[in-house]
Amino acid sequence: MGFFEAFGGLALALLGAGLAAVLPGIGSAKGTGIAGEAGTGLLCQDPSKFGKVMILQVIPGTQGLYGLVVWFFAIFSMGLLGGVPNLSVQQGLQYFAACLPMALGGLFSAIAQGRVAAGSINILAKKPDDWSKGMVLCITVEFYAILSLLASMLMIINIA
């Protein structure tokens, strides 16, 4: 039995789980950075808005947390916490595919949400009483991150 036959399934599963953790993390770092840049401009002029700016900046960070949840759930489901699991290549591909919705959905939605949060900070700067409208716009993007989380979790649950 060759190396790939012995460990190929595990390698594919770990690659999928790793991507589910790292890509949403990258997206969250980018998204919170975009919102943070917009927030610093406003805070230079009005430091009293720090609390609302902070809320808007943190929102794109949720995808990184969702990715970590999928990573943990995948490695738990694989049996990795109890030793080195023996996964077939087919099972490895199943884990890989199951982790992709969170990996890609988390990456792109976090960046998009960071841009919406930056726009929401502009609303806060110009019409402070309407800042909650910007929150609603951010939550609209969050919905797609949650769908990505749900898709990955449901697929992982159904891997036999």
Describe it.
The chain has helices at 3-45, 50-58, 62-78, 89-126, 131-157. It is mainly α and 160 residues long. The chain contains 5 helices and no strands. Helix 1 packs antiparallel against helix 3, helix 1 (3-45) runs parallel beside helix 4 and helix 2 packs antiparallel against helix 4 (89-126). The longest helix is centred in the N-terminal third of the chain and has 43 residues, at 3-45. The model has no long low-confidence stretch (mean pLDDT 93). It has one domain (3-157): lithium bound rotor ring of v- atpase (Four Helix Bundle (Hemerythrin (Met), subunit A), Up-down Bundle). The radius of gyration is 19 Å and the shape is elongated.
Which properties best describe this structure?
160 residues; mainly alpha; Four Helix Bundle (Hemerythrin (Met), subunit A); 0% strand; elongated
Largest sheet: number of strands, sense, barrel closure: none
Q: Helical content, roughly?
A: over 70%
For the termini, the CA-CA separation is 23 Å
H/E series, N to C?
HHHHH
CATH architecture: Up-down Bundle
